[in-house]
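Entry type: protein chain
Record version: 2
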Amino acid sequence: MTTKTTAHTFHIPVMGLAFTVDSPIKVAQYGISSVVSIVDDVLIEKMNEFYSKKYQLPFQAYPTKELDSRAKRITSYLNNMDIIVKNKFQEFKESLLEKKEVLTDYLEMLPDFSEVKTNLISLLENNASKATIQKWIQENLTTGEIDVNIMTKLDNENYHKKELLGTEHNDAHAALRGFAKSNLSSSIVLSAGMNPRLYSYFEEFEDFYPTQENYLKKKIILKVSDYRSAMIQGQFFAKKGLWVSEYRIESGLNCGGHAFATDGLLLGPILDTFKQNKESLIEKTFETYKKALDLKGKHCPEQALNLEITVQGGVGTSAEHQFLLDKYKVSSVGWGSPFLLVPEATTVDEETQTLLQKAKEEDLYLSNISPLGVPFNSVRGASNEVYKQNRIQNDKIGSSCPKKFLASNRQYTETSICTASQKFQKIEIENLKTQDLTEAQYQHKFDKITEKSCLCIGLANAGLIDKNIEAKETKQGVLVCPGPNLAYFDKKVSLKTMVQHIYGKANIMNVAERPHMFVKELEMYVRYFNKKLEDFLITPDKKQEKYLIKFKNNLIEGISYYKELFEETNDKLIWRMNVLKTQIHTL
């Protein structure tokens, strides 16, 4: 199948719970794709109510106690978002003909190599009639995608009137159903690892199967960190007659949000593996896919459906952007954290916006605040962290845990609770008091317990505060999760300016010296490895030793790959990689 012509070669990945929750409403009419988190149905319903009033659309609230309220809230918001985007797109297309400044701004946002831009300019230069231009616009311009994201492991069981509900009512299952039943024709991005039970649930929804015209109304995107993971997960879906339309490769450490480190595999070599093996991946997956569709008695395309490779994590310059497109033949490059400084594209409250503009390299760090036990990108001085520390000082530890999306610990209870909750932390601290610890030992363990934060509240509050939506939880402040790349951007900019930066028509970076995205990631992996090695030397074990040897070997191979890649282009990069190699400690 041929790929449709798109206006842009970048997308805005999911960020937090609130930061991109309404991004399609802001940017889709310009052909820019973005991803909405559908983890938090409570936030989603509040945003749905806000936008329904703004655009005079019908709105229905679904009480939390109502059976299947989670899926219904998500479906309702996505349907209204679909209507809003389509209406705004129609207005935008009409304004291109009626308002010269709108057409000028749009053309200035497009990359020079865009077919949309060259064809539109050609029509204008040849004095095509208004009717001809209007017809071309209607037939060729498309909106950006309204994609959604699920963290696959956030799949807690749910109860109704104290009765355990079936698996289909688990959190991730219900979110999937909310998307599947919506009117959208777009993709669902699956992140944070494989969930076989959730993946199998996709079989229930017809929109994920091809029509007689080989059209998929709803597509599957897998966020992956390496080729092996893509093969395993792609085959799992294919055996069920489900096609993965895109593999979205993300840097393990040089990203925002949760950081899922690889075993020392670096982004460049990973991308190269995908480039070299893409056709093999398509061929092997399609053979499995055909057999599964035949067994199900469903229509099977004669040729493999389109499969795209995209990348995100740490990109910050137009040169890097174009390099990724040219060298690795990716379809799109994700620009995340820099868009937190673009109010026309993302939702960030003023206080947090100011914090992000002032953040330097030393303010952006990998924290241990996530209840999932996975390193989490944070910025020092976030208002939620200040709120939490004030509570700890007043002997009020832990969150009331009203949403429970990250409740996964059963160490002390029959039902899952969150490690950031009051219930869990009080039990842990009571246990501490019974141990024969020095004051320093007690404080160290106390800090480890109380550093966990309520991400469910912190990552959602920016949306409520920005929209002036009254809610008692907003007093707890905001958590924000930018990647380290944000350190090189220090001012609020317009959507047009940010897009022009991506395409090399403007430069909004605040530093003359910035490490190449590949080198920056390598630096982070070297630090990560050395910290793991230090921990190992304190408490050595054979399994960890084997892991560290593999990790180090992958790092060394990655450095060799980069040296060969940059040998003829940049002596400074070679020098930096040699320095980093000497900093990798030995076992």
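Comment: The mean pLDDT is 95.
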